[in-house]
Amino acid sequence: MRKTVWSSIYLSKRWFGQCSTGHQPQDINSEQNQPAIQIDLQETSLLPSYKCGHTRPSTEMFYLLLSKWTELEEVPPLSPLEEITEDEAVQIDADLPIPQPLYTAGLCDQSETLRKLFCLVSVDLSKIEKRRNVANFLLKLDFERDVTKILLFLKDVGLEDELLGAFLTKNPFILTEDLENLQKRVSYLALKNSARKELGLSAEKTRDLIIRLPRLVTGSLEPVQENLKVCEIELGFNKNEIQHIATRIPKMLTANKKKLTETFDYVHNNMGIPHHILVKFPQIFNTKLLKIKERHQFLTYLGRAIYDPAQPNYVSLDKMVFLPDEVFCDEVAKTNVEDYEKFLKTL
């Protein structure tokens, strides 16, 4: 026998209402109760045998009966193809947020320049659009008139086809440069031996250097020339050491001269780090001088400022400056970070 949830609820409601008023049950299918609901009389067997007029059934009993009747029939799940109302759709709690569409993807259909940069050169438009106004600037360019000549120029200076996309993704503003100025800069590099001859770099290493630091081509060459002289004359590095440092950290070629000399002076003269160790860890020049001073003074206070690889308890420069405070205190200073923070307050 199939029991329905709604018929059972209706029957229960009528039965409880009559018992609470002390009247005898009436025919639930009488003409006064329209529309009539057909219920199998055997459903009444689900009700407990309370006599009307006696103790009123408790609310807990009502919900107990309701829970048991609900178990008689499982509500079928909604079909994914079933239409729902607009109000129901608004109440749906989606697990994952809907991703925002990339506006450059839509513009590729309208802009020949963006479409060719993406399809022919493999420029990463998803990175381009994250940079302010770059996509709008590219939309104003004509591929044949503005872009093609720059691509041919980059190939002439040795940039391979598969590297064009990565290069333009990092430095799209090269497309705004005047071709004549670019050619003069490359000629200047060749004539003055700024890259390959002065640094002793091969053609492959020169290309890698330009890809990692595109401003060598598009920016002013004066800081590069000045820093090369500073490294050789003021800091005392030889050409082989300068070549190694430049290939490891190209930013040193365009770094601030004052910061470069101050960092070298403290590390070399105060900490006693020789040139050959600085060449092995040139990243020290990219570290804030204040951080170097704080950690060196703390190690000196603890008697652990040992930077000679031949000595026991040797502390390498990469561990001294590149580790987080917690790891530095635990592995290098052999103390806790609280003591380190207290020491910094005394400086």
Question: So how many helices?
Answer: 21
Overall pLDDT score: 75
Q: Summarize the main sheet.
A: none
Provide the low-confidence segments as ranges: 1-6, 19-56, 96-103
| Helix-strand string | HHHHHHHHHHHHHHHHHHHHH
Radius of gyration: 40 Å
The share of residues in extended strands comes to: under 5%
Helix content: 55-70%
Distance between the termini: 87 Å
Count the E strands.
Answer: 0
Global morphology: flat
Structural class call reads mainly alpha
Family: Belongs to the mTERF family.
Protein name: Mitochondrial transcription termination factor 3
GO molecular function, one term: nucleic acid binding
Keywords: Transit peptide
Draw up the topology in text:
Blueprint: H1 5-21, H2 59-70, H3 86-90, H4 103-107, H5 112-119, H6 125-128, H7 134-139, H8 143-156, H9 161-170, H10 179-191, H11 196-199, H12 203-212, H13 215-218, H14 222-234, H15 239-248, H16 257-270, H17 275-280, H18 289-302, H19 317-322, H20 325-332, H21 337-346
